[in-house]
Amino acid sequence: MADNKRLVLAYSGGLDTSVAIPYLKERTGKDVVAVSLDVGQGGESLETIKQRALACGAVEAYVVDARNEFAEEYCMKALKANAMYEGVYPLVSAISRPLISKHLVRAAHQFGADTISHGCTGKGNDQVRFEVSIASIDPTLKAISPIRDLALTRDVEIAFAKEHKLPITQTEKSPYSIDQNVWGRAIETGFLEDPWNGPTKDCYSYTDDPAFPPVEDEVVIEFKQGVPVKIDGRDVTPLQAIEEMNRRAGAQGIGRIDLIEDRLVGIKSRELYEAPGAVALITAHQELENCCLEREQHRIKRDIDKRWGELVYDAQWFSPATQSLNAFIEDTQKYVSGEIRMTLHGGRAVVTGRRSDSSLYDYNLATYDSGDSFDSKSSNGFIDIYGLPSRVAAARDVKFGNGIDVPENAVE
C-alpha cells in the first residue's frame, strides 16, 4: 500500500537532484527515495551516487544497471523502427524516459510511495514523457517537479546546499544542458540558443572532428530479425553492438546533428545531437530492409516508422497506438537477417555491400546480361493495363479542350 509520507525522486547525483532530496522533504513533508539508473551515460559509479543520495537525506536508494535492458528493449525497438524524429534525430532522450519511468514506478511500489518527482523544467519534453509514462503504468501515482512546481531555481539550490551543509561539491556550471546515454548525446542551451551561432569543439564528446578523420574503417554488421548479432564476425549483444559502433563511427565524426526542432510543448528549440552508433546502425538496418521487405510492405513500414518516431517523441511509448505499431514493425523483421558491409569515413557511413539468404533481390531477374529470367514480353500487357486510367482521363481532357499542351519545336 502506498505511504503518503514517501515520494520517489529520479536522482542523477548532481547538484539539482541532491539539493532536491532535503528540499522536497521540507516542502512536502515526505521522506525521499532516490532512484538512479545507469543507461550508459558514463560518469560516476552507481555506488558513489547511491551513497551521495543517502548522505543528502534519502531514506532509501534504488540503483539499477539498466544498460542491457535499455539496449535490448528500447534501443532495438528504435532500430527496428529506423526511428529518426524529423528525419534526423534518433530519439536519444525520448527512448530512455519510459525506461526510467518504469523503474520509478517499480520503486514507488517497492517502497510504498504515493508520489514521484523528477527534475524537469516546465518548457521541455521530458516532463511530459515522465508524467505520461508514469500515469500509463500506474495512474494512481502523483507526480511533481521541484524546479517547475516548487520554485527550486539554481540560486535557491546553492543557498540551500550551503545552509544545510550538504555533502556535495558545486562544480563550475556547464554552459550547456546535456543528456546522454548509450544511444547518443543531446546538447542544448547557452550560446546555442542563438541559431546563428555555430557549434564549437567543446560541444562534442562522442564524436571526433569529421574534417580530420583517420583512415577509413570498413565494418561488416550481421543482423538477425532486425537485431545486430555480429560485428566483423564476432558475436555481440545489442549493448556491445551500440558501444562498438559508437567508438568506431564516433572516431570518424559520424552522427553529428544540428537542427531546429519542434518540441512537444509547442516551442521551436535549437538542438545538437551526437549519435554515432545509432546513425551507423540505422543506416545499415535500413539497407538490409531494402533487400528483405516486399515492396508494399516496405512502403507502409516507412510511413509507420515516421509515425512511430513521432509518437515516441511525443511521450506515447506506452500508448495503445505505439503498441499496435510495435506489432506491425516486429512482424516485418522476421526476414530482416543478413550482412551489411559499410565504410565509415569523414562523417559518413556508406553501405558498400549487402547479402542475405532471405533477400528478395534476385540476380537472374535484375541482370541485363545473358541468363536474364525476366520475361520482357510481359511488360507490354503490364504497361497497357497500368496506363489505362491515364489514357481514359487524357481522352476526356482532349474532348473538353483541356489536353496537355505540347509546344512544337522551334524551327529557324
From TrEMBL:
<feature type="binding site">
    <location>
        <position position="125"/>
    </location>
    <ligand>
        <name>L-citrulline</name>
    </ligand>
</feature>
<keyword id="KW-0055">Arginine biosynthesis</keyword>
<dbReference type="InterPro" id="IPR024074">
    <property type="entry name" value="AS_cat/multimer_dom_body"/>
</dbReference>
<feature type="domain" description="Arginosuccinate synthase C-terminal">
    <location>
        <begin position="176"/>
        <end position="392"/>
    </location>
</feature>
<feature type="binding site">
    <location>
        <position position="89"/>
    </location>
    <ligand>
        <name>L-citrulline</name>
    </ligand>
</feature>
<dbReference type="InterPro" id="IPR014729">
    <property type="entry name" value="Rossmann-like_a/b/a_fold"/>
</dbReference>
<feature type="domain" description="Arginosuccinate synthase-like N-terminal">
    <location>
        <begin position="6"/>
        <end position="167"/>
    </location>
</feature>
<dbReference type="InterPro" id="IPR001518">
    <property type="entry name" value="Arginosuc_synth"/>
</dbReference>
<feature type="binding site">
    <location>
        <position position="273"/>
    </location>
    <ligand>
        <name>L-citrulline</name>
    </ligand>
</feature>
<dbReference type="GO" id="GO:0004055">
    <property type="term" value="F:argininosuccinate synthase activity"/>
</dbReference>
<comment type="similarity">
    <text>Belongs to the argininosuccinate synthase family. Type 1 subfamily.</text>
</comment>
<feature type="binding site">
    <location>
        <position position="125"/>
    </location>
    <ligand>
        <name>L-aspartate</name>
    </ligand>
</feature>
<feature type="binding site">
    <location>
        <begin position="10"/>
        <end position="18"/>
    </location>
    <ligand>
        <name>ATP</name>
    </ligand>
</feature>
<feature type="binding site">
    <location>
        <position position="121"/>
    </location>
    <ligand>
        <name>L-aspartate</name>
    </ligand>
</feature>
<dbReference type="Pfam" id="PF00764">
    <property type="entry name" value="Arginosuc_synth"/>
</dbReference>
<dbReference type="InterPro" id="IPR023434">
    <property type="entry name" value="Arginosuc_synth_type_1_subfam"/>
</dbReference>
<comment type="pathway">
    <text>Amino-acid biosynthesis; L-arginine biosynthesis; L-arginine from L-ornithine and carbamoyl phosphate: step 2/3.</text>
</comment>
<feature type="binding site">
    <location>
        <position position="129"/>
    </location>
    <ligand>
        <name>L-citrulline</name>
    </ligand>
</feature>
<dbReference type="InterPro" id="IPR048268">
    <property type="entry name" value="Arginosuc_syn_C"/>
</dbReference>
<feature type="binding site">
    <location>
        <position position="119"/>
    </location>
    <ligand>
        <name>ATP</name>
    </ligand>
</feature>
<keyword id="KW-0547">Nucleotide-binding</keyword>
<dbReference type="GO" id="GO:0005737">
    <property type="term" value="C:cytoplasm"/>
</dbReference>
<dbReference type="InterPro" id="IPR048267">
    <property type="entry name" value="Arginosuc_syn_N"/>
</dbReference>
<feature type="binding site">
    <location>
        <position position="261"/>
    </location>
    <ligand>
        <name>L-citrulline</name>
    </ligand>
</feature>
<feature type="binding site">
    <location>
        <position position="177"/>
    </location>
    <ligand>
        <name>L-citrulline</name>
    </ligand>
</feature>
<dbReference type="GO" id="GO:0000050">
    <property type="term" value="P:urea cycle"/>
</dbReference>
<protein>
    <recommendedName>
        <fullName>Argininosuccinate synthase</fullName>
        <ecNumber>6.3.4.5</ecNumber>
    </recommendedName>
</protein>
<dbReference type="GO" id="GO:0006526">
    <property type="term" value="P:L-arginine biosynthetic process"/>
</dbReference>
<comment type="subunit">
    <text>Homotetramer.</text>
</comment>
<keyword id="KW-0067">ATP-binding</keyword>
<keyword id="KW-0028">Amino-acid biosynthesis</keyword>
<dbReference type="InterPro" id="IPR018223">
    <property type="entry name" value="Arginosuc_synth_CS"/>
</dbReference>
<dbReference type="Pfam" id="PF20979">
    <property type="entry name" value="Arginosuc_syn_C"/>
</dbReference>
<feature type="binding site">
    <location>
        <position position="126"/>
    </location>
    <ligand>
        <name>L-aspartate</name>
    </ligand>
</feature>
<keyword id="KW-0436">Ligase</keyword>
<dbReference type="GO" id="GO:0000053">
    <property type="term" value="P:argininosuccinate metabolic process"/>
</dbReference>
<keyword id="KW-0963">Cytoplasm</keyword>
<dbReference type="GO" id="GO:0005524">
    <property type="term" value="F:ATP binding"/>
</dbReference>
